[in-house]
Amino acid sequence: MGEGINDYTRYVVDLRRHMWMGGVETDLRRLIWQIAVTGKYISARIHESNRKLAGFKNIYGEEQLSLDRSADDIFKSQLQFSGFVREYASEEQDAVISCGKGDEKYFITADPLDGSSLVETNLAIGSIIGIHKESVFAEGRKSMVAALYITYGPLITMVYSAGKGAHEFVLNREGEYVLSQENITLKERGSLYSPGGLRKDWLPEHLKYVECLEAEGYKLRYSGGFVPDINQILIKKGGIFTYPALQKSPRGKLRLLFELQPMAFIIEQAGGKASTGKDYILDMKVEALDQRCPIYIGSRFEVEKAKEFLSGT
Ligand code: F6P
Ligand code: MN
Asked: What percent of the chain clears pLDDT 70, i.e. is strictly above it?
């Protein structure tokens, strides 16, 4: 039989079908779908901003928001009326926002537009979402049921995990998220390293760890955007991303709730690990919205190796 519409539909698995076939619970499926669709609106906003919104007036004379504030508004308004979200915690807000009637099932965390300053240089940026079944002030391992991130690059891609593997989708020209990789699995050991923070500010143990990676020939890959940097490790099936403790900021830079927990959830589902250098990220209890932690995330070998170097600190 020649190639036709039937062949196309037979081989293309879109996000909704994938979640249904994978047995993701109905409400969670609908919520993940809604978040993925919201990514399209955010991408549209990035495009129409022509790189910058803050301080500009639109055609109606209204002051425009920065892109990250604007992405936050879009997520908030989409999720508020979804019927599935009880609370929304965002990196752009200093308190948790209650949504809906109070009996909804899920608690959401969002870094609505991570790395938004990279828009100017036309590098990839992303949205990071965590989905919890109870209050977010807990260990991720207890409260999280799913996580996803969207990468806005030359293509828009989305990776989600609802606790049964990590799967990548690409947004096609018809506006559908189409499965590109199912059950992404990291190798035991990779060959990329992505080190955040200035070398002069690193602690001696961390410096020794990085020197050890360099001596073993790991390739440097650091864009300055957490989403594309993690995505690179995941799609290349291994390596290590780290944003360590620094001399003047022992808790590093990245936020446990909005950035680290969702990525740790996805990377663990892909067979990797994520730690602070001592404890696993998903075992860290969230005490405050803006809590930061050092991070070592990627394939198992490199994350465990970091623990050996840092155990004495
Ligand atoms: O959200 C913080 C962030 O922009 C991340 O996307 C990124 O990994 C990190 O900061 C980069 O930090 P630095 O500019 O110090 O390398
Ligand atoms: Mn961020």
From this structure: 91
